[in-house]
Amino acid sequence: QQQVKQSPQSLIVQKGGISIINCAYENTAFDYFPWYQQFPGKGPALLIAIRPDVSEKKEGRFTISFNKSAKQFSLHIMDSQPGDSATYFCASLSGGYNKLIFGAGTRLAVHP
Amino acid sequence: KAGVTQTPRYLIKTRGQQVTLSCSPISGHRSVSWYQQTPGQGLQFLFEYFSETQRNKGNFPGRFSGRQFSNSRSEMNVSTLELGDSALYLCASSLTGPDGYTFGSGTRLTVV
User: Fold this and answer.
1) What's the confidence (pLDDT) of residue B35?
2) How far apart are CA B78 and CA B70, in angstroms?
3) Which residue in chain A is spatially nearest to B41 when comparing CA positions?
């Protein structure tokens, strides 16, 4: 019940296209769903996060879509740029456990 | 403002040795967590501290330990190092808990 399943493992998108990464969780107690972006040699950086009281959150080119009934959430990157090439991790948190559970990561490559 | 600082950045140790890694959180942050990142297992939670108290611990053997000081700085120690302990060890901090974590750049530990 503590798993977060992320797909796809890798993704290639053309510049200007839409990148979509999906995650599914099992534990209905999870109440915070962040996405992190990691570049080589760096730690993960918080990109955007959502709580289950809303179905969508948008910040610039990044949007989280959240489906509580399906226990799924996804990251959409609009107008993808080569600078977006990085590894993306979804995560889930249950406040009572004080720990983030991470997905396995998606390596995104945006080709010019 | 200064970010999360982890020292050292790189470390090479021999099997059987022990190692101590250091993390200085963002000023004012009282919650500090440690994660192990490997290509095979991804990001795995080690432990979380808040105001010098360990609030949660991951599924790692007792060779992995940590502590937090009154100034919120944290250390983690790994004793009797094994080859499988080679990983990027990441520290993250926030004001109150895992939501809103800022990660450091990590310490790359290589065990030979």
Assistant:
1) 97
2) 21
3) A104
Total Cβ atoms within 10 A of residue B25: 27
Per-residue pLDDT reduced to its tens digit, B46-76: 999 999 999 989 999 999 999 999 999 999 9
Alpha carbon B111 to its chain centroid, in Å, reads: 16
Quick check: A73 contacting B, CB < 8 Å? no
Which residue on chain B is closest to A102 by alpha carbon?
Answer: B43
Q: Any bridge partners for residue B43, and if so which?
A: B37
In degrees rounded to 5, what are phi and psi of residue A82? -55, -30
From residue A96, alpha-carbon distances to A13, A48, B30, B56 in Å are 38, 21, 17, 10
Query: Which pairing describes strands A106-111 and A10-14: parallel, antiparallel, or unpaired?
Result: parallel
Q: Give the pLDDT band of residue B1 (cuts 50, 70, 90).
A: low
Strand A45-50 relative to strand A33-38: parallel, antiparallel, unpaired?
A: antiparallel
Tens of pLDDT along A9-60?
999 999 999 999 999 999 888 889 999 999 999 999 999 999 989 999 999 9
Q: A44, B56: Cβ pair inside 8 Å?
A: no
